[in-house]
Amino acid sequence: MVARTVIEAEPSRLRHVKANIVLYGALFANLGIAVAKFVAAAVSGSSSMLSEGVHSLVDSGNQILLLYGQAKAKRPPDNRHPFGYGRELYFWAFVVAILIFAVGAGISVYEGWIHYRDPEPLRDPTINYVVLGIAFLLEGASWTIAVREFNAGRRGLGWWKAVRRSKDPAGFIVLFEDSAALAGLAIAAAGIWLSHATGDPRIDGIASMAIGAILAAVAILLAREAKELLIGEAADPELIARIWTIVERRPEITAVNHVRTIHTAPNSIFVAVSADFEDRLAMGDAETLIEAIEAELKAASSDISSIYIRPEKQSDALVQPRPYETPVPAPTSEI
Questions:
Q1: Which of 180, 214, 231 is the last residue of a domain?
Q2: pLDDT at 328
Q3: CA distance 291 to 309
Q4: 43 inside domain
Q5: Is 1 among the domain residues?
Q6: Are residues 246 and 186 in the same domain?
Q7: Do 174 and 143 meet the contact criterion of CB atoms below 8 Å apart?
Q8: 44 and 131 co-located in one domain
Q9: Is the pLDDT of residue 329 over 70?
Q10: What is the 3-state secondary structure (H, E, C) of the chain?
Q11: Angle between helices 202-231 and 47-73 (to 10 degrees)
């Protein structure tokens, strides 16, 4: 038996920088918007505007938690965590989802119900419309940045499929938060206008509860995705197929038993390969072959950070079905 593990240097930080731009842009926009919304809510007495202020404040806290998670996730491996701390970001993403549900949705529904049960007299809504207009522009700018960065990594996939396959929660959390924020602004504006048009202040409370329902739906979706990342998700099927093909086409490999992968961070993948080597292959030649395969795998994807290749007879292995074919360029040299 020959086994070899290679740990690659930290992957490119370009995607990290882009994610930080999205987070910082959303953070500064939400902090300014939150202050303006609370002032407008105090002046006008609008329940939906108060809910929107809470929404923006929660979003600001979420961005701070994600930035904190990114910083903690970049710590180097140590004896206690030999594969690094990358999955700590997934923990904080799950905390963000809980906060959106418990604080954002909970307070919005509560405030809406209070204002529906005991409606306040209507006041001049002008300041609400001004703040909502400014908030829509700022949220729209943040949403545009988030969409552009998310589109850059979609690789032609549909939106929902890209979210399900994404291993970087910071990108899609900001995208979903900003989308919910824009929907909430529209509902708040409609609630305020209808309250004054009909003379019924309870409509504003209904709008606040509707905003809470949107936040709850977003929180449940984000919690589901964060849970999957925490448990441990495999790499994209296309990459698994590439790994399989790279190993399988070596003439010294008689069969690939299985290829198992797991994301230890958004841009860091652990790869474990079980393959049946030719019986006549000498120990030294097997080591050289493994080195060549590892080099080719790392060249195929910069996200592959750790590789474990285990020679194992197919008759003794738990064989995994071969994934679908994917074109892989031929290596420059063969062992």
A1: 231
A2: 46
A3: 10
A4: yes
A5: no
A6: no
A7: no
A8: yes
A9: no
A10: CCCEEEECCCCCCHHHHHHHHHHHHHHHHHHHHHHHHHHHHHHHCCHHHHHHHHHHHHHHHHHHHHHHHHHHHCCCCCCCCCCCCCCHHHHHHHHHHHHHHHHHHHHHHHHHHHHHHCCCCCCCCHHHHHHHHHHHHHHHHHHHHHHHHHHHCCCCCCHHHHHHHCCCHHHHHHHHHHHHHHHHHHHHHHHHHHHHHHCCCHHHHHHHHHHHHHHHHHHHHHHHHHHHHHHCCCCCHHHHHHHHHHHHCCCCEEEEEEEEEEEEECCEEEEEEEEEECCCCCHHHHHHHHHHHHHHHHHHCCCEEEEEEEECCHHHCCCCCCCCCCCCCCCCCCC
A11: 10
Instruction: Tell me whether residue 332 is in a domain.
Output: no
At which of 231, 247, 268 does a domain end? 231
Same domain as 304, residue 224: no
Give yes or no: residues 224 and 283 share one domain: no
**For residue 331, which of 300, 285, 301 has the smallest C-alpha distance?**
300
Closest by alpha carbon to 89, among 21, 175, 146, 16? 16
**Separation of alpha carbons 13 and 204, rounded Å:** 46
- Lowest pLDDT segment from 10-14, 57-61, 287-291: 10-14
- Tell me the whole-structure pTM to 2 decimals: 0.76
Tokens found for residue 151: 């589109």
**CATH number of the structural domain spanning residue 302:** 3.30.70.1350
Q: What is the number of structural domains in the chain?
A: 2
Return all residues near 285 (Cβ < 8 A) that are at least 6 apart: 252, 335
Long-range contacts of 152-156 (CB under 8 A, 24+ apart): 152/18, 153/15
Reported confidence tier of residue 324, pLDDT bands at 50, 70, 90: low
Residues 143-188: tens digit of each pLDDT: 888 888 888 777 777 888 888 888 888 778 888 888 998 999 999 9
Going by C-beta distance under 8 Å and a sequence separation of 6 or more, which residues neighbour residue 223? 94, 97, 98, 101
Residue-range definition of the domain harbouring residue 33? 12-231
In a domain? residue 323: no
